[in-house]
Write a structure and sequence with these properties.
single chain, elongated, alpha/beta, two-stranded antiparallel sheet, 7-stranded mixed sheet, about 45% helix
Length: about 300
Amino acid sequence: MKRMSNSSLATTTQISPNKNSPRNHKIDRITIHCFVGQVTARRGCEVFQPSSKKASCNYVVGYDGSIGLCVDEGDRSWCSSSSSNDNRAVTIETASESTAPYKVTDKAYSALLDLVTDICRRNGAKKLLWFGDKDKTLAYTPKDGEMVMTVHRWFANKSCPGDYLYERHGEIAAEVTRRLEGDDDEMSYEQFKQYMSQYRKELQDNDSGSWSKENRQWAIASGLMAGNGTTVEGEPNMMWEDFLTREQNATVSKRLYDLIMAEVKKLLDDRDKAIKEDIGEIVAEAVAEAIKKATQQ
């Protein structure tokens, strides 16, 4: 089973140990939080690194518009004071001021919109819903193509995500839905590149079919395939299902040529050795015969 993908918008990745892996429910919610501090995405992720923190989130949006991945989307973060919610939601901590109403910068808000849109898009949602009512939201079962917004204050005695973001949840839902509905229009070149990049990232792991196991093992053992230098769960990342570029093809072809020529050289060396041994035997027999005749005279 393939892992859920993560956003290609993330500019930094620092995975927190504070999580449950994997989540036990499909993603059908978005929960936006205020960080209560004007941090970058990198600094925000660093805060959730100690296991003693006992908290985390899937993403951090920095005041400068940076985006950090803190917990894989396939895993449940510890963010909303609700196991049930966090197993269903992608949680996003957004850099904010440290006092009410916990305002966020324009760059953070813009990046938040981009991130939420990307999360919905990759998880098959065409509509983001904000009901503004706890009971109605929690009783609602999202239909195919829908994602629902929840807030931390519904699960704990907190003001999170702060009134600044809370009052803009309707605006966020409307804007993200507008963008998602626009996906049916002609795709731009930049969108194509983003999707293709994301698609290739999903292929660049060690997933592979059982039918090719023997051939893959031979390719690794012979040195024909070497991976891309990174690791997946401690193993070399062979990217078995990814495309082969002309550049990579040239490299693999050269390795195959070197393997073939090494075998050819070995065969020629063995033949030359055999010929030399045969010549040696003939010369030895001739010398022995000559000595025999000489002694008989």
